[in-house]
Design goal:
Number of strands: 0
Distance between the termini: 51 Å
Shape: elongated
Number of helices: 11
Strand content: under 5%
Mean pLDDT: 81
Order of helices and strands: HHHHHHHHHHH
Largest sheet: none
Number of domains: 2
Helix content: 55-70%
Low-confidence stretches: none
Length: 196
């Protein structure tokens, strides 16, 4: 944008703060080109930024008050079998995504809660990392009120429910993770049973 102001002599440097805040409005006369170039600015990002701040605030509040750890602690007391542990970890990450709408909190809260159980079960922590990615991060675009869901919907102009049937990776990752957990395929163990 600054480069275009140097190239196009009609623009005044005094307009730069307004353009940075409200976005650039192209007046080329070509409707399609103007539609493509007229956008941006801080103002266009306020909704997404405020959603991130609110989601992180709510998640931090629920975590600090002990609500989420208490819910997960009640669940984590029954995790003696590996398939139950992996299923509970994946479902917790998905549930936190739907509850809070923030993928980072689903990773942090679930990871901190279940790390000790993975060590106790003799599973390498890279299994936990994979589950958090497959069921925490990848699910977030499918949640309409999540940060990713709102961002993708606003950028593409398509509602979340309209693109869900085509989000094969997002839909299949948790399924494959659960299948690996229940069959034991690709699970790395620690100690004597370690798999390279």
């Amino acid at each position: 944008m600054i480069i275009s102001m140097m190239v196009v002599p009609q623009k005044d440097w005094g307009q730069l703060p307004g353009i940075l805040y409200s976005g650039y409005v192209s007046e080329s006369g070509n409707e399609q080109l103007d539609s493509l170039l007229s956008r941006g600015g801080l103002e266009s990002m306020f909704f997404s930024v405020s959603l991130v701040l609110l989601a992180l605030s709510m998640g931090g509040l629920l975590f600090k008050l002990g609500v989420l750890p208490a819910l997960l602690r009640g669940l984590s007391n029954n995790l003696e079998k590996v398939p139950v542990l992996i299923g509970s970890t994946a479902l917790s990450a998905i549930g936190i995504n739907f509850l809070i709408g923030e993928q980072y909190l689903s990773i942090l809260i679930t990871g901190n809660t279940f790390a000790g159980h993975f060590e106790k079960a003799g599973l390498h922590l890279k299994n936990l990392s994979r589950i958090l990615e497959d069921a925490g991060t990848v699910i977030n675009p499918l949640v309409p009120w999540s940060v990713c869901g709102v961002f993708i919907s606003s950028v593409l102009g398509v509602s979340t429910m309209d693109y869900v049937p085509f989000a094969f990776f997002c839909l299949l990752s948790p399924v494959l993770t659960l299948a690996a957990g229940f069959t034991g395929i690709t699970l790395s163990k620690t100690g004597k049973n370690a798999v390279a």
